[in-house]
Amino acid sequence: MSIPIIVILFLHTFYSVVDAIWIAGLGQSAIITVGYVLNLYYILQKLGEGIGRSCNVMISTSFGANEYDRANNIACHGLFIILILAVLIPVMFILLIKPVCSIAHIEQYTNLIASYFLIPVIFIVFTLLSNYFSAILGSEGDTKRASYIVMAGSIVNIVLDPILIYKCNFGIFGAGLATALGCLVSFLLFYYLYYVKADVVVKLSRQNFTYDR
Fold it and tell me: From its phi and psi, is residue 66 left (phi > 0), alpha (psi between -120 and 50) or beta?
C-alpha cells in the first residue's frame, strides 16, 4: 500500500520541478512567479487530499464496524465540502489577488501570477476532486489504481508543458493550462472508475447522503 502513495507524492513534486524548468526559459520574472504560485497551488492540492485522508480514517473505521452506509455518508460529506471549496477558491482568488500581491510587495508580478494561476484556479474543482478521490480510494486499500490515475495526469502535464509554453507560444499561461488539463485527465479517469465502471466499495451518490453535522 505504501509504494503507490510514495509514487504519488514523488510525482506531485516532480511535475512542479518540470514546470519550473520549462518556465525558466521565459525569463527571471516568470521563474519568480512560479516560485510564488507553486507553493500556493501545493496548499490547494493538499486541501483536497487532506479532506480525503480525514474522511479516509472515518471510512476505514466504519468498514471495520461493517457500517457501510455510514462510510458512504462520510464520503459524500467530504465530496460536498470539496464542491463548496471549488466555488469559494476561484472567487477568493479573483477578489484577493491584487491586495495579497500588494501586501507581499510583489505588485510587479501580479499580472504574471494571474496569467499562470487563473486557469488552474478556475478549474480547481478538478484538482481538489482528483486528490480527494485518490485519498478515498486509499480507504479501500486500493492505492495502486489511485497512483496510476495520478501518474497519468502528471504525465499529461509534463508532456503538454513544452508544447503549450513554446510550440503554441502561450508562455506562462500555457504552463497553467497544462496543469489544469493534467488534473482534468485524472478527474475523468476517477469519474470513470467511480460512476461508469463503479467497481469501488465507497459509493458517492446523492442517495447515500444524509446530513450529519
Answer: left
pLDDT tens figures, 88-118:
999 988 888 888 888 888 888 888 888 888 8
Residue 213 forms part of a structural domain = no
Q: Cα separation of 23 and 137, whole Å?
A: 33
**One-letter amino acid identity for 20?**
A
**Residue 164 belongs to a domain:** yes
Read off the amino acid at residue 124: I
Tell me the pLDDT tens digit for each residue of 168-195. Answer: 999 889 988 998 999 999 999 999 999 9
Question: 72 φ, ψ to 5°?
Answer: -65, -40
pTM of the model: 0.86
Q: Cα–chain-centroid distance for residue 117?
A: 13
